[in-house]
Specification:
Length: 294
């Protein structure tokens, strides 16, 4: 079963918790499909076009703690550690935590409250794990041509929560392959960095624009430094120029860092927010997306 949000501009498909069963992405509010009804433009694509490859991402799916898992280094093989939005995972061996690896899952209990045709709220209930525990709520709604995702995270444990959250936006407009027809824009001068220069092959950077010389044949990835999202009316925009269809993220919060990943069928702007919560503290933030035809 999937949930649908709809108004006169947008139709949004959201997976029921448990339809995605991986140990990486948040099970709540896993957005698998978005249609802009003006022109019936689609935006969500899978992480991989080859069944069984990748980590199961699709559309708009967020992740907590991609680099450092809460409590992972304090336990041995067979011990449990929490992955916010997912559940309690089992450490397999002495290797360091790897976000792309599959770990056994004891999923958190989740409730879904349907408010109306245009909004619903997911709530992930806390479960103590070595002093870590958190209550997570995520309200998803559509208003006009905008999609809003509102987060409320509360530290209910006795240990500090220190992590990051981002949304892995798996985007491909109308299933058009990535190439010369696309432009990815940021509202500031770009200074990209990459661990391997070859991952930037075929990409060009001019002021705030990223363009693609051809359809990429290997994955590309680069990082951008953090910035104050509140300074800009939008923080990235992806446009398919022949159709004029596009999407921009309007989120306004302090961005700890940004990155862009993609391959031949998908481009994923990733905007990170840092989370530091002492026991009893809570944090609210929101991600806002605007879908349009120029």
């Amino acid at each position: 079963m999937a949930y649908q949000l709809k108004n006169e501009h947008l139709s949004v498909e959201i997976a029921e918790p448990g339809m995605y069963r991986g140990s990486r992405f948040d099970w709540t509010g896993f957005i698998t499909g978005i249609i802009l009804l003006d022109g019936n433009h689609t935006f969500c694509v899978p992480e991989s076009l080859i069944p069984g490859q990748g980590t199961g991402g699709a559309g708009l799916c967020n992740e907590f703690g991609i680099e450092t898992a809460l409590g992972y280094d304090d336990i041995g093989p067979g011990g449990h550690f929490p992955k916010l939005g997912v559940g309690l995972l089992t450490r397999l061996d002495d290797r360091k935590y790897e976000f792309f690896r599959e770990y056994p899952i004891h999923p958190f209990k989740v409730s879904v409250v349907r408010e109306n045709e245009a909004s619903l709220t997911f709530h992930s209930f806390p479960e103590d794990c070595n002093g870590f525990a958190a209550s997570l709520s995520k309200r998803i709604s559509v208003a006009g041509n905008r999609l809003e995702v509102e987060y409320h995270l509360r530290n209910t444990g006795i240990k500090e929560l220190s992590t990051e959250e981002y949304c892995h936006n798996f985007l491909g407009i109308d299933d058009h392959f990535i190439g010369t027809d696309y432009v990815l824009r940021f509202p500031f001068e770009l200074s990209p960095t990459a661990d391997e220069e070859k991952t930037l092959s075929g990409l060009s950077f001019n002021r705030g624009e990223v363009r693609f010389a051809d359809r990429p044949t290997v994955p590309f990835y680069f990082r951008l430094p953090g910035f104050d999202g509140g300074q800009y009316p939008w923080i990235w925009e992806l446009l398919h120029e022949p159709s004029g269809a596009g999407v921009r993220e309007l989120s306004q919060f302090p961005v700890s860092k940004a990155a862009v990943w993609g391959e031949g069928h998908v481009v994923s702007p990733e905007i990170f927010i840092k989370i530091e919560l002492a026991p009893g503290e809570e944090k609210r933030w929101a991600r806002s997306y605007e879908f349009f035809v120029k």
